[in-house]
């Protein structure tokens, strides 16, 4: 087993840049903010692409991996829409902006995607046998999909708030 310091020292610099960018973005999400309706789609789409790239970079985009990712996405999307989180989103028609309450959820999701991707990079670099286990592949693909579906559900709940106020 490699010590953590050795794992970190072999991590490319760009990974730390992504990590701190996600931390900053997640911290910004923890504060109440006013945003244009169009901008609520940016973060979810970026996280969908980041998670899909996570599947592709390790397992490739086969019918099985893509289906598992989509299954996770759809399940999380359905649950997220049912729970309708965030609950307190208001829309101002006058300036076409949503007021979104602060939440640590986006940061937690971004870190979950990041560390899943980091672990998978480590597993591939070390040629860990687990990356060839079908149950593990299914779990990771669905997990990436769940992260994406959760982001999309939050986005759609906020978008719906903007439409119901018109």
TrEMBL record:
Keywords (A to Z) from UniProt: Membrane, Transmembrane, Transmembrane helix
Stretches that traverse the bilayer: 12-28, 40-60, 66-85, 106-128, 134-157
Alphabetized Pfam families for the sequence: DUF6622 (PF20327)
Keyword Membrane among UniProt keywords: yes
Protein name: DUF1453 domain-containing protein
Organism the protein comes from: Paraglaciecola hydrolytica
């Amino acid at each position: 087993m490699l010590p953590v310091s050795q794992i970190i020292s072999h991590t490319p610099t760009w990974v730390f840049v992504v990590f701190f960018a996600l931390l900053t973005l997640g911290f910004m999400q923890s504060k109440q903010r006013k945003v244009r309706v169009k901008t609520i789609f940016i973060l979810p789409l970026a996280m969908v692409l980041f998670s899909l790239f996570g599947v592709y970079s390790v397992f490739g985009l086969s019918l099985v991996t893509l289906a598992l990712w989509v299954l996770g996405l759809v399940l999380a999307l359905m649950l997220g829409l049912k729970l309708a989180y965030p609950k307190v989103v208001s829309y101002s028609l006058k300036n076409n902006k949503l007021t979104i309450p602060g939440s640590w959820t986006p940061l937690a999701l971004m870190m979950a995607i990041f560390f899943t991707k980091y672990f998978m990079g480590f597993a591939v670099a070390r040629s860990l046998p687990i990356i060839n286990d079908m149950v593990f592949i299914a779990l990771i693909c669905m997990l990436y999909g769940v992260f994406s579906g959760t982001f999309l559900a939050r986005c759609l709940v906020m978008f719906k708030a903007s439409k119901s106020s018109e």
